[in-house]
Design brief:
Layout lengths: L1 H24 L5 E5 L6 H17 L3 E5 L6 H8 L7 E6 H10 L11 E17 L8 H10 L4 E5 L5 H13 L3 E5 L3 H9 L6 E4 H9 L3 E6 L25 E9 L4 H15 L2 H9 L3 E2 L4 H22 L5
Parallel strand pairs: 1-2, 1-3, 5-6
Antiparallel strand pairs: 3-9, 4-7, 4-8, 4-9, 4-10
Helix pairs in contact: 2-9, 4-11, 6-11
InterPro entries: BUG, Bug_dom1
Pfam families: TctC
Keywords: Signal
Amino acid sequence: MFSRRMLLGSAGATLLAGTARAQQAYPDRPIRLICPYPAGGATDVLTRILADGMRERLGQPVVVENRSGAGGNIGVDAVAKSAPDGYVLGTAPVGNFLINPFLYPSMPYDPVRDLTPVSLAFEVPNVAVVSEKFVPARTLKDFMAWAKAKKGGVVYGTSGVGTSAHLCSELLFKRAGVACTHVPFRSAAQVIPAMLSGDVDFAIDNLASYAGIIQQGQMTALGMTTAERWPTMPQVPTMEEAGVPDFVLTAWSTLIGPAGLPEPVQERLSAAVQSVAADPTIQQRFLQAGGQALATTPAGARARMDRERPMWKEMVELSGARMD
């Protein structure tokens, strides 16, 4: 009996030691990082910058895989259904945590139950823009006056129903009492030509999509949805400076894994993201792409989600948006 106990104890100790070594060695092979949106978009570009920084710090390839569709739900669901070993991760924008649950009648995953938020990773502000050629206003105040006087109201374009661009636009125009018509496109790349041809009057969408066209002088930036002026466009006022208080709304993304991700793996990944966000060279890459690096603990990521959930729910309800 004594020998049997010793044997079992030895086997248990060996198993625990093996588990500890595996966690300490993480990662020992390439990591898949799923981006739930198409290649070339803001989330994809910023995810690839994050992947480069993580690769340097983790010592393993971090391979970005685009799995888009259903407002990002397809890619995030792939992460949720993966093994909780840290080798399949993803970047999930705010919509996948705090908008889609109120937008879709059913979801393939539960964002609270089925996912582990490891760290906030980056954020992108929305910028309000109009065409230089077709809209005479050069300030948000003048635009609102022009919009109220415009017969039939204004036409605004977004990159889709239920996006932060859609919700921000509806909130802005309902607060101002401006009649508006929403025209959803598949992406900002389709909204921009419509604005430049005069078919769409206004957009408020990710800076990453509009920075180039603003810098070319073909569009006027009327306001930024940030608490402070954006580093790469200090000439653009915040929405509060432009006359719209309580309008700080950024589209942030979180590094995620499936539920059950071991705490040592979470800590390793969170530390890597924090190191990425503290690197001045990588910070500049994010800014040039229209975003900003973020980093938190897993608890910090959950805290922001809990804090903003009521706000995004209210915005979805206000917009009347549904994806049936």
